[in-house]
Every structure is written in C-alpha cells, then in structure tokens.
Write a structure and sequence with these properties.
This protein is an alpha+beta fold. Helix content is about 55%, strand content about 20%. It folds into two domains: about 180 residues, GAF domain (Beta-Lactamase), CATH 3.30.450.40; about 110 residues, Histidine kinase-like ATPase, C-terminal domain (Heat Shock Protein 90), CATH 3.30.565.10.
Length: about 400
C-alpha cells in the first residue's frame, strides 16, 4: 500500500471518527434540549445547561455567566469543575475579558492560548489559583437580546477546541437562552402569585380583626343584655319572654356564624398548633353552624408540616368545602388528610349532585367562577397535584397530593 493510499485511509478514518463524534454530540444535544424545555427551576436549569455543555465537549470545566442589566456586569451564575463554587457570584464588567467581548459583539470565540490573548481577564484566574489554557465561549441570545455567555475550558484530552465544538456549544446556548427566559418568566409569575397571596392574607387578617372588634362584640353584648332582661325580678308576659328567647337564639346563631367567618379568615390555631388541630376545630364549627354531616379522618400528622404547605393545604380544603356548601346539596362529606412517607394527601368527597367538570372549566370566563382554578394554582405553588372527579348525580371528589421535603 502506497504512502498516499495510507494517508488517504487515515484521513477517511479521521473524518469518519469526527462524524461519529458529531452525531453522538448532536444526539446528546437533542436529549439536553428536550430536558431543558421541561425544567422551570432557574438555578437547577442553569446547572443542567452548564453540566451538559462540559460533558458534550469533553471539557474539564465551564461557567455560565448572566448579564445584570442594572449594573452592566456579567455574573458567574454557575460553574462546573475548575475553581468550583468559589467563582459563583463573582462579577466582571460586561465589556471585559473574552466573555465580555463575546457578549458585547454577540459572536462566539475560540482561544487556544488564553495567556497570549490580549482580551483575557486574568484577574479571575489569579484570584482563584486556576489555570485556564484554552476555551470556547458563545453568547446566549434570545429575540435579539443577549442574556449571558456560556463558556467551557480546557479539553480533557489536551486537544484544541475546534469549529465543530463551537457549533455544538452555540446550538446548546440557543436552546439554553430560550429555556432561561421561560424559567425567568415562570419565576416572575410565581413571585407575583406569592405577592398577591400575601396581600390577600393581609386583607383576610384585617377583615378578621374588623369582624372580631365589630359585629362579634356587638352580638355578644346583645346576648348578654337579653340574658340580663330575662333574669330581672319584674314579671314579663309569656309573649315577651318567648320573643326574647327567640331573639337570643337568633343572636347566638349569628354570633357562631361570625366567629366561624373569623376562623376561616384567620385560623390562628393553624399557625400556633398545626394542621391537624385546625382541621378538627374547622370540622366542629361546620357541624355546629352549617349542620353538615362531615366525616373527618387524619393520619400521620403527629409532626407539623412546613408552615406554607399547611396554610395552602388548609385554604384548598376551605375552597373545596365552600364549593360543597354552595352547590352540592349533599347528605355526607368525607374529609381525609393522610401523610404517607414523603407524600401528603387530602381528599374532599361528597355524595351530592355533582357537575359536568368539562363544561364548568369551559365556561370559566363567562361565569367568573374561579374556585377550581384557585385550588389548582395553589396546589402548583407547593409542587402539588390537584385532581377533580365529578359527574351529574355522582357527587364530587377533590384530591390533592403534595410531595413532602425530606
């Protein structure tokens, strides 16, 4: 075999090897892109993006920098290998270093010898004692807006980064930029929901105070006055006595209803003693005021759950019970709250009229009834899953499943 033939064979072998590596990298890239679209936890998403980039390019380390629009700086959001967590949170001017050039010019860059590159921002390496020899950096851009830079450092094999590596990283950065914007939007929505719920909680507390200091006190005074009249030594007619007794009964029932409203607006026992005592107190009040035939079962709540989880679960239970009171015409309600290992389950079931769930969800915008939507949104806030089963004449079952932190 001639030297020329041998060279041609080696070249073909090398081309085939490069093609196989590229196919493998693109396959991994496809899997990564699929996973990125489903991840909405921003910090977890950033780490997955960077780890995937380092793995696909077989590099020793990498970093993902996000642009801080307020200060016009690039912030090391996450790192992988190399200097590790010591680098996270560090800042640099958005126009300094190789990353700054890539971000400012919206162009990728491959640097084989960073020490000889005039754009290299050596202050980072020197402060951390890490030696960067080569790198490839690409901008993360979505809708024409730069949001950061993705860079990987030092191939494990000692080889140089090439255009193939740059193309793969650039493709990953494009997918990553979209995923980051989605995660940021989702985070903003969650923060806004938290803010609205906090405002709602403040309003509920204020209403509870107003009811306690106003109608509740007035009704208590009325009942005491009636009882005082009934005990006076002067004789009163039977009709007046009967009227006073009826008035006292009405005032007492109204006072129970007001106190129940205060409890629902601000269940202090939930904060001080936990979900199980709050449920027992809630059910007793329902039996007393609503004359509801409600059956309660609680298991596994000897230890308290996280405060936010308890509050949201209780509000979902209240919403489900209120729906039963308003619409079900039930004979029985079963309320179950059970903790099994790392999952908490709540079930509210009634034997009432039931309803067409599809039709109700379709007519939300026309009817302005948001109870089911509110329950689902609250369930999502604690990572829970809410399911509703109902049909005309077959009652309704609302089930909430919540994973518990270890």
């Amino acid at each position: 075999m001639s030297d020329e033939t041998k060279m041609s064979f080696e070249e073909l072998k090398r081309e085939y090897q490069l093609a196989q590596e590229r196919i493998a990298a693109l396959t991994v890239l496809q899997d990564v892109a699929r996973n990125l679209t489903s991840e909405l936890d921003l910090n977890k998403l950033l780490r997955e993006i960077l780890h995937s980039a380092v793995r696909v390019l077989k590099a020793s380390a990498g970093s993902l920098l996000l642009w801080d629009e307020v200060t016009n700086e690039l912030v090391f959001a996450v790192t992988d290998g190399g200097a590790g967590e010591a680098l996270e949170g560090r800042r640099m001017p958005a126009d300094r270093g190789i990353a700054g050039w890539v971000f400012t010019n919206r162009r990728p860059d491959i640097v084989h010898d960073v020490r000889s590159n005039e754009r290299f921002y050596s202050a980072i390496d020197e402060s951390l004692g890490y030696h960067t020899s080569s790198l490839v950096a690409v901008p993360m851009i979505t809708k024409g807006q730069g949001i950061g830079v993705l860079e990987v450092l030092n191939k494990k094999s000692g080889e140089r980064f090439d255009e193939n590596d740059c193309d793969i990283l650039y493709a990953l950065a494009g997918q990553a930029a979209i995923a980051i914007m989605n995660a940021r939007l989702y985070q903003e929505i969650r923060e806004e929901k938290d803010r609205i719920i906090a405002l709602e909680e403040d309003v509920r507390k204020e209403l509870a105070r107003d009811f306690h200091d106003g109608p509740a006190q007035t009704l208590s005074a009325m009942i005491m006055a009636i009882e005082l009249v009934e005990t006076l030594p002067e004789p009163i007619s039977e009709s007046v006595a009967a009227g006073l007794a009826e008035l006292r009964a009405m005032a007492t029932k109204t006072l129970h209803q007001v106190r129940n409203m205060i409890f629902e607006l601000r269940p202090v026992i939930l904060k001080t003693q936990g979900l199980e005592p709050a449920l027992h107190s809630y059910v007793e009040r329902l039996r007393e005021v609503e004359e509801m035939n409600i059956h309660l079962k609680v298991e596994g709540l000897e230890e308290r759950l996280p405060a936010k989880l308890e509050e949201i679960c209780f509000s979902i239970i209240q919403e489900a019970i209120n729906n039963v009171k308003r619409h079900a015409n039930e004979e029985n309600v079963w309320l179950t709250a059970v903790r099994r290992g790392d999952e908490f389950e709540v079930v509210v079931k009634d034997d009432g009229e039931g309803f067409d769930l599809t039709e109700v969800e379709r007519s939300y915008d026309r009817q302005g009834k948001l109870g089911l939507l509110n329950m689902r949104e609250r369930a999502e806030m604690i990572g829970g899953r809410l399911s509703i089963e109902s049909a005309p004449g077959k009652g309704t079952t609302v089930t909430l499943n919540v994973p518990l932190p270890s």
